Each structure stands twice: as structure tokens, then as C-alpha cells.
Amino acid sequence: MRERGIVPELEVFDLGMVDYANYLIERGVLRKPFYFNTLLGSLGKPGATPFNLATVVRALLAGAT
């Protein structure tokens, strides 16, 4: 992906997925820019509440989109 200039989008449903993305970033597997899609409010995902959204967004790295 890197060779072709493809920037991955990461879909996160919960804090564990954010932690895993941070793990990949720390090891250099993923590099800037970081694009995250936050998915809430459907079956099997946290409810679409202001609290859940703020919690996931606060866990993202500074500068992530």
C-alpha cells in the first residue's frame, strides 16, 4: 500500500480497536496520515451516545482524522 501511495482508513468500533491501531503505529506498520472511521450505534457495537463517541475520539492519536 505504501509503495502505491494508498492511505488506509481504519474502522474502529471500540477502544480495543484504537489500542490495536496504536500498537501498529508504534511498530511502524501504519504511518501518517491516520484516518479513522468511528462506527457506533448498530448491532454488536457500542451505542451512538455522546459519551461513547467522545471516549473513542479521545483515545485517538493527536492529529488523526
Give structural notes:
This protein has helices at residues 15-26, 50-59; strands spanning 9-12, 35-38. With 65 residues, it is an alpha+beta fold. It has one domain (9-59). Strands 1-2 form a two-stranded parallel sheet. The longest helix has 12 residues, at 15-26. It is elongated and about 40 Å long. The protein starts with 8 loop residues before the first strand and ends in a 6-residue tail after the last helix.
Q: What's a quick, concise take on this entry?
A:
The protein has 65 residues and is α+β, with helices and mostly antiparallel strands. Helix content is 34%, strand content 12%.
Annotation keywords:
65 residues; two-stranded parallel sheet; 2 helices
List the SSEs and their pairings.
Elements: E1 9-12, H1 15-26, E2 35-38, H2 50-59
Parallel strand pairs: 1-2
Biggest sheet, open or closed, and with what strands and sense?
2 strands, parallel
Secondary-structure-derived class = alpha+beta
- Total beta strands: 2
Termini separation: 19 Å
Round the Cα radius of gyration to an integer and report it. Answer: 12 Å
Total count of helical runs of at least 4 residues: 2
